[in-house]
Structure formats: C-alpha cells, structure tokens
Automatic annotation (TrEMBL):
Record-linked InterPro entries: bc1_cytC-su, Cyt_c-like_dom, Cyt_c-like_dom_sf, Cytochrome_c_Oxidase_Subunit
Keywords noted in UniProt: Cell membrane, Heme, Iron, Membrane, Metal-binding, Repeat, Translocase, Transmembrane, Transmembrane helix, Transport
Organism of origin: Lysobacter korlensis
Gene3D superfamilies given in the database record: Cytochrome c-like domain
Protein's name in the database: Cytochrome bc1 complex cytochrome c subunit
Keyword set includes Cell membrane: yes
Length: 264
C-alpha cells in the first residue's frame, strides 16, 4: 500500500511570514514618520530660538536703557516680564514705544520697526514669562454680532472712548484715544493688555467672540453714514450743545442787534 505523503503547495507563503512582513512594514513606517516629525520639530524650535535671540538683541539696543537688560523695569519704565507678545506688538506696532519723551502716556506716532522686528522682540518678551499672545486671525474678522458688540462697547468702553469710539479726556493729563481708525489686531491687543489707564479685559471678562463682536461694531460704525447730518466729530451732545450755543445764540444776538439798529 502506497504511503500518503502531503506536501505543501509550492509558492504559498507561510502565515508567520505574512505577520513578520506586516510588523516590519509598521516598524518602517513608524520609524520614518518619527524621523521626519523629529526633524520638523527641531527646525521649528531652531527657528523660534533664532527669533527670540534676534529679539533680545533688538531689545538690548533699543529698550533696555529704560526697561533693563532683562526687562525687569526701572525707575522710569515698568517691568515687561509677563506682559506677553500682545503688549509688545501693540505698543511698538502703534509707535507708542520707544517713547519720544516722558509724559502722562505714550503717544501714537510713526512706528520705528518693521513687523518682523516687532515679532522678534515680542517673541523674546513672551519667552520671559506667560502673557497675552497676539490674537488669532479668526477673532479679527468683522463678521461677528454687531448688535452685541455695540451693547458691550457701550457698557465697557463708551464712558472713556465715547459711544462712537472718538476718544475723550481723562484725568492727570491722560486721554482715551480714538479707536475709529485703529486696526482690529491692535484693538484686540489693547483689550487684553490694558495700556495706560485702560482696564484689562481678559477672556473671563470678554470672551474672544465678544471682542470680535466689538471689533465688528466699530468697523460697521466707521462705514455707516450719519443720519442726522453733520456728525461734528462724533463727540456727542457736548459738541452739539457747543454748536448751538455758539452759532444758535450767536445768530439770535446778531438778529437782535440788527433789529435794534433798524429801529433807530
């Protein structure tokens, strides 16, 4: 009787070989991904560190004489530790810093640095301690709720900046500047950093969406026409009352004098 011998078909792969190939493929893919990820992270860290180093050099050359080499502050300038990148971007980006002269508050003037240099100084100051960051673009687009923004502005801002954002006088020679021609980014940064006498509106006071609504209101107001005629600088009832006193009463006095002269 012939012996029955089973032979494995040629060309068929063993199940163990398939598992081994699968494991090898996973290891190769994972290793390649890890290599590229590590390389990209190293390049990003190096670029960020380079920006911080350049910012430190710019700060030392232009700001350290008042704020100190380590931004610790002095008798003539406050500490910048913890103010964040947003404060630097606002103060330097609007020309308020460096100061032209000591005064009640920094005045807006032509900026002394380009945006790349401002970003570098902001990166260095931000590396010292946590603080408000430069806002994300999604919160700077004027596509929020203008009605809610108008209400929030009247409640939180109008007592200083005027309901139309035209600005106004404060105490001790200080003033609330006009916000009518200010960029959305700088409006947002002012809210989160509180320059001069302005209070800080962090995300617990006004959410990022609320700040976007305020920006939307200001942008819409700036593009709206005045339904009452001449807006008189948007200074409100004071300007309107002064206009009536000067021109209205002046006209009445002039008519009275004219009538009196005619009667004689």
């Amino acid at each position: 009787m012939a012996k029955n011998t089973r032979t494995r078909p040629t060309g068929r792969r063993s199940p163990l070989a398939s598992i081994a190939l699968l494991v090898l493929g996973l290891l190769t893919t994972g290793g390649t991904y890890a290599l590229f990820t590590t390389t990209a992270a190293a390049e990003t860290t190096e670029a960020s560190q380079e920006m911080v180093d350049e910012g430190q050099k710019l700060f030392a050359a232009n700001c350290a004489s008042c704020h100190g080499l380590n931004a610790e502050g002095s008798d003539v300038a406050p500490s910048l530790i913890g103010v964040g990148a947003a404060s630097v971007d606002f103060q330097v980006g609007t020309g308020r810093m460096p100061l032209a002269a000591q005064g009640p508050q920094g005045e807006e003037k032509p900026i002394q640095f380009n945006q790349e240099q401002i970003d570098q100084m902001a990166a260095w100051v931000a590396s010292l301690a946590p603080g408000p960051a430069v806002p994300e673009e999604q919160y700077l687009e004027p596509n929020g709720d203008a009605t809610n923004g108008a209400e929030l502005f009247r409640i939180n801002c109008a007592m200083c900046h005027n309901v139309a954002g035209a600005g106004g006088a404060l105490t001790e020679g200080k003033w609330a500047p006009s916000v009518q021609d200010v960029s959305a980014k700088h409006i947002y940064e002012a809210m989160v950093t509180g320059p001069s006498n302005m209070p800080v509106f962090n995300d617990l006071n006004l959410t990022p969406e609320d700040k976007r609504d305020i920006i939307t209101y200001l942008v819409n107001y700036a593009s709206a026409t005045s339904p009452g005629g001449i807006d008189l600088g948007d200074l409100g009832p004071v300007a309107e009352g002064l206009f009536i006193w000067i021109f209205g009463l002046g006209a009445l006095v002039g008519i009275t004098v004219w009538l009196t002269a005619k009667s004689n």
